[in-house]
Amino acid sequence: MSNEKNIIEALVMKARGPISINELTRISGIDGGVTRQYLTQIKEEYNERGIELYSNNDEYWFASSHNLSEFFEDIEKREEKHLGIASLETLAIIMYRGPIQKTELDIIRGVDTNSVLRSLSIRKLIKKTNETGEHGSTIYDITPDLIAHLGIQNRGELHGYGELQDKIKDLERAYTENV
Fold first, then answer.
1. How many structural domains does the chain have?
2. What is the per-residue pLDDT across 18-65, written as a single tens digit (0 to 9) for each?
C-alpha cells in the first residue's frame, strides 16, 4: 500500500464518521481523482472483512460489515425502537428523494414534519446537511448509520432507486415544458 493511500485510509478511519473527498484532498494535499482511486482500492481491500468502507454523496466512512449483523443482534435489541407510519413514510421520502428540503417534505406529506424529523434525527437515521434550501429551509439526508444498517454501500443500491429517479426526471422535464 502506498504512503498516500495509507494517509487516505488513516484520515477516513480517524474521522469517525463521514468525510468528503474535498476534505480528504484539502487535508492530505492529494489530488481528488487520485484520492477517489485510493478510496476505490481501499473499499475493495476491505470487502468481505469485519469492517467495510461505505460511501454516500462523495462522503466516506468505515463501519462494521452488515454481513456480520447476526452478531450485533443483542446490541441492536437494546437500541431498537419501533417507527410509526409517519416516520417510515418520511424516512422513505428522504431515502429516495433526498437530500430534500423540509418544506418539500411538508408538501409531499401534507402535514408539518417537525416532530417526525426530530424523532428520526434522534435515532440517527437522518441528519441536517450544512446547506440550506430556498428561503433558508433546512435540508435533510440519510445518515451513514442508516446506510450501514440497510447493508448497502450507497443510496443508489436502494431497491428501485434508479427507476424512481428516471421517473422523477421525466415528470420534472414534462412540468418545465408545460410551464
1. 2
2. 899 999 999 999 999 999 999 999 999 998 788 889 888 889 998 888
Using CA atoms, how far apart are residues 12 and 51, in angstroms rounded to an integer?
A: 12
- Contact between 147 and 154 under an 8 Å Cβ cutoff? The reply is yes
The residue from 18, 39, 68 where one domain ends is 68
Partnered with residue 141 across adjacent β-strands are 127
Q: Tell me, what CATH number does 63's domain have?
A: 1.10.10.10
Q: Which domain holds residue 41?
A: 3-68
Name the 3-class secondary structure at 129: strand
Give the domain-ending residue among 68, 98, 123: 68
DSSP class of residue 135 equals G
C-alpha cell at 119: 424523532
d(CA 6, CA 85): 44
Percent helix, strand and coil across the chain, each rounded to 5?
60, 15, 20
* Residue 81 pLDDT: 61
Question: CB 166: neighbour CB atoms within 10 A?
Answer: 10
User: DSSP states of 40-80 as a string?
Assistant: HHHHHHHTTSSEEEEEETTEEEEEE-GGGGGGGHHHHHHH-
